[in-house]
């Protein structure tokens, strides 16, 4: 996260500094050509700043650059007062005055993907700053080429016409709402969605939704995805064929809540969930985006939902252990459908000469008391694994790069594995190569897991293979009390005092092999491996239609008669 702050500060400083420098060179020196060239670079810097800082207000920089470009243009032509150039200046003034208000108004517009309607107005308003930057770049290049001022006026009129069309459309939507609802509402009424998936989270959290989309689609009922932040729209829209809608306001949410909707699913405890919970006609169901013994998996906020889908009985016990009193009838054990692609290994994993070990460090968390990240001592740990002839797959948490220290520590692990791969030929996987694998693919390739406290351990449990959990010392002697899932694995302490003994139990003797199967049932439910995801699908269909019942399994005697041939 500190890395993001540094990048944002750099973008702000570069955009402002380049704009000021360009204006000074044009206005206060005779180096007009250099000043115009610097203006183009300054415009590029403002565009980059808006990418790094979505919603950044670069109005002051753009105004300064525009003034410099116009002064430079006039000097290049050296023809005294030019009406065309004056007209260009007036249009630029109007554009810069309108860009901010139009962008703000456009940000309040509903956006849709995977729906046969055009929501082009908010998309255009979001790019108005880039449009003005592109126009100024054209004017700067025209000035460098000493083109007639009428060229600048024509380009400005084109840009002004486009902005005017957007302004008219926004005014029409405010003053003359379409009868029968907006085009999106009318199309949703035709689509007849029965449930929605609601999502609000910072950028980079889209995995919380994409892990559930395949299973929501398998329910077999039409649905929509409602987003509250615009950055998630393209990522999630590409991951499903269902309509995906960005609703920036409560009013836009009202447009999406069509009468056919019966339920709303949630994947986290985001603060904006309350905006959707106000629709009391819906059944509100919390899915979570992972199952672990972290405190976040027993959040008291869960109590506000009508149903809490949990992987197994251990999740219910976790709430009770945390002192969170929730009526038992709110919980529904559905398993963890995402693990169905994980292969189950029933035989022992012992004395493998060259085991493959999956290492999954988590991130540092928002607070020190939630920092279960093992990266500070991971280099020594992986060195011990390499000494045992292990092949290592490193799969870090998606937020790891947000912390510069964690990013550097992860980089050292990559260097360590790259050097060992060059020396021994062992096919270690890390970086982009490891990221190209799904979690299930990573689990299936590995013989053992070393993980921090996270939902990965619960998913791995489905495989039946041995695992170790790192104890970073945050909880002192209460580690196993707070994270009972670690009791069926092997605990690696932060000081690595017993690392060799732990790795021997993990990769060789595996004395906890039988205990893991009982833990597996408690954490992941007692569902048949062959039809594991049906636990979730059946529960979801029942919530959508209380009278729905799963078809009875057919026996051999129920099979239709086939005459012998």
Task: Report what the structure shows.
This protein is α/β, with parallel strands linked by helices and 565 residues long. It has helices at 2-28, 32-52, 59-77, 83-106, 120-125, 128-144, 149-175, 183-191, 207-210, 213-218, 232-237, 250-256, 273-277, 313-321, 378-387, 404-424, 431-435, 439-445, 455-461, 479-482, 499-509, 513-524, 534-544, and strands at 111-113, 195-199, 223-227, 244-246, 263-266, 283-286, 307-310, 331-333, 356-360, 391-394, 448-451, 467-471, 490-493. The strands form two sheets. Strands 1-4-3-2-5-6-7-8 form an eight-stranded mixed β-sheet. A five-stranded parallel β-sheet has the order 10-9-11-12-13, sandwiched between helices. β9, α15 (378-387) and β10 form a beta-alpha-beta unit. The protein is globular, with a radius of gyration of 29 Å. The chain starts with a helix and ends in a 21-residue tail after the last helix.
Largest sheet: 8 strands, mixed
Q: Please list the strands of the largest sheet in the order they lie side by side.
A: 1-4-3-2-5-6-7-8
* Percentage of residues in DSSP E strands: 5-15%
Report the total helices: 23
Q: Provide the residue-averaged pLDDT.
A: 88
Shape: globular
**Radius of gyration based on Cα positions:** 29 Å
Separation of the first and last Cα atoms: 70 Å
Pfam families: Glyphos_transf (PF04464)
Protein name: CDP-Glycerol:Poly(Glycerophosphate) glycerophosphotransferase
Organism: Micromonospora gifhornensis
Transmembrane segments: 84-103, 124-144
């Amino acid at each position: 996260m500190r890395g993001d702050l540094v990048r944002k500060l750099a973008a702000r400083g570069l955009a402002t500094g380049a704009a000021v420098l360009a204006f000074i060179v044009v206005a206060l020196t005779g180096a007009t050509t250099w000043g115009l060239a610097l203006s183009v670079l300054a415009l590029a810097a403002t565009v980059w700043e808006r990418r790094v800082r979505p919603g950044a207000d670069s109005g002051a920089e753009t105004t300064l650059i525009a003034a410099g470009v116009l002064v430079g243009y006039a000097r290049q032509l050296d023809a005294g007062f030019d009406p065309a150039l004056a007209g260009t200046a007036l249009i630029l003034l109007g554009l810069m005055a309108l860009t901010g208000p139009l962008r703000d108004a456009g940000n309040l517009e509903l956006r849709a993907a995977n729906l046969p309607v055009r929501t082009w107005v908010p998309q255009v308003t979001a790019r108005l700053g880039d449009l003005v930057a592109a126009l100024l770049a054209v004017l700067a290049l025209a000035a460098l080429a000493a083109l007639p001022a009428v060229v600048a006026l024509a380009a400005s009129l084109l840009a002004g016409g486009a902005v005017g069309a957007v302004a008219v459309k926004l005014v029409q939507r405010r003053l003359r709402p379409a009868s029968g609802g907006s085009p999106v509402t009318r199309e949703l009424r035709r689509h007849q969605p029965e449930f929605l998936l609601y999502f609000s989270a910072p950028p980079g959290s889209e995995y919380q939704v994409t892990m559930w989309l395949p299973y929501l689609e398998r329910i077999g009922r039409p649905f929509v995805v409602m987003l509250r932040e615009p950055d998630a729209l393209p990522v999630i829209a590409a991951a499903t064929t269902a309509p995906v809608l960005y609703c920036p306001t409560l009013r836009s949410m009202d447009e999406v809540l069509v009468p056919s909707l019966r339920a709303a699913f949630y994947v986290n405890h985001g603060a904006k969930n309350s905006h959707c919970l106000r629709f009391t006609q819906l059944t509100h169901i919390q899915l979570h985006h992972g199952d672990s013994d972290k405190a976040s998996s027993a959040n008291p906020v869960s109590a506000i939902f009508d149903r809490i889908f949990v992987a197994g009985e251990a999740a219910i016990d976790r709430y009770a252990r945390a002192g969170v009193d929730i009526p038992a009838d709110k919980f529904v054990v559905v398993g963890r459908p995402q693990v169905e692609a994980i292969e189950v290994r029933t035989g022992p994993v012992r004395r493998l000469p060259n085991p493959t070990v999956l290492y999954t460090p988590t991130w540092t968390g928002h607070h020190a008391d939630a920092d279960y990240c093992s990266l500070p001592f991971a280099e020594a740990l992986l060195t011990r694994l390499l000494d045992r002839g292990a092949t290592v797959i490193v799969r870090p948490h998606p937020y790891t790069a947000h912390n510069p220290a964690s990013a550097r520590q992860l980089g050292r692990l990559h260097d360590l594995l790259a050097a060992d791969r060059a020396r021994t030929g062992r096919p270690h996987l890390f970086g982009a190569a490891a990221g190209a694998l799904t979690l299930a693919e990573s689990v299936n390739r590995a013989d053992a897991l070393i993980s921090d406290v996270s939902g990965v351990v619960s998913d791995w449990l489905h495989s039946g293979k041995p695992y170790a959990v790192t104890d970073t010392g945050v909880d002192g002697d209460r580690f196993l009390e707070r994270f009972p899932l670690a009791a069926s694995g092997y605990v690696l302490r932060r000081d690595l005092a017993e690392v060799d003994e732990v790795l021997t139990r993990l990769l060789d003797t595996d004395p906890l092999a039988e205990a893991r199967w009982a833990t597996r049932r408690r954490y992941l439910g007692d569902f048949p491996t062959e039809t594991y995801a049906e636990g979730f699908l059946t529960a979801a269909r029942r919530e959508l239609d209380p009278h729905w019942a799963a078809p009875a399994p057919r026996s051999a005697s129920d099979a239709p008669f086939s005459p012998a041939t």
